[in-house]
Sequence to fold (312 residues):
Amino acid sequence: MKLSRFIATSSTGVRIIVLFASSPFISELAADQSSPASPPPGKIAARRPPKVPGHLLRSKGTFVDPSPIPSGWTCSGNCGTDGADGVVPLSPAASTAYEWVSTSGGAQGVGALPTGALGNETDGSTLTTPVFAAAAGTTLNFYFNYVTSDGAGYADYAWAELFSASNTPVSLLFTARTSTSGTIVPGIGLPAPLATLTPSSVPIISGAPAWVPLGSYSGVCFDTGCGYTGWVQSKYTIPAAGTYYLKIGVTNWQDVSYDSGLALDGVTVGGVPVGISTPALSTWGMILLGGALLLFGIKAVMSNAPTPRLRS
Fold:
């Protein structure tokens, strides 16, 4: 804060100090109301996290090896698959599990929003689906659930963005960001998403969220703003025919302590799940299958043939 002071002496010899706000302070105060304040370096240093082995998560003192992501998906940082766990139940998509990304065990410089990053992002993770084809007017649908152990001036965030197969950003689909009050979806200070979100705004379900992907911060809360969103639906109409992929990410902001994560489920394009397909038989597989069926048919014919009679 920038305060000016004026010292005056009264008729009785008492010195009076008067403090008043200058115009720069007024403008700074207005800015503070519109975005989370950056904490002082000393406060950030006091929040250094415990060391956790690279690919492992820690929950209640036990290291957990995360389940692998689906075949064809890619991860930078720390991602996995989980079932109903802590504050994150199974999604409305009725799947038996969901995918997740977390800043716990994340990578430095990973997880920041590709279009519209805030600055001061530190470490995080991103998860990418396989490339899929879509006709113009096709609906891309999925569910997400943002979970954070951080609060106050350390506004972590998560996002999802659609890219073309040539790695060109197409549309920002949602953002979620830690906030001490009000809605956290869309995220404060981040670009507006283009997907239809249901519900359209989501206040934090407050508390210290227990969720294994948060690692050593599962069940922990730093100040006001911790909690989770519950499952939110994102629905977007793809405007042009082409090939695309979906990328989701989560990042720590200002420091690397008190982790946040995002659960994702039910990714479908035109009602068809992304990344799940029936494998096609190879040419040799078709030949072998055809040969097996032919032999089976010959055997069946021979077994049903009448036994020849011998002449006496």
About this structure: The first strand starts at residue 3 and ends at 9. Helices lie at 23-34, 41-45, 283-304. The chain has a mean pLDDT of 78. The domain at 62-273 is CATH 2.60.120 (Jelly Rolls).
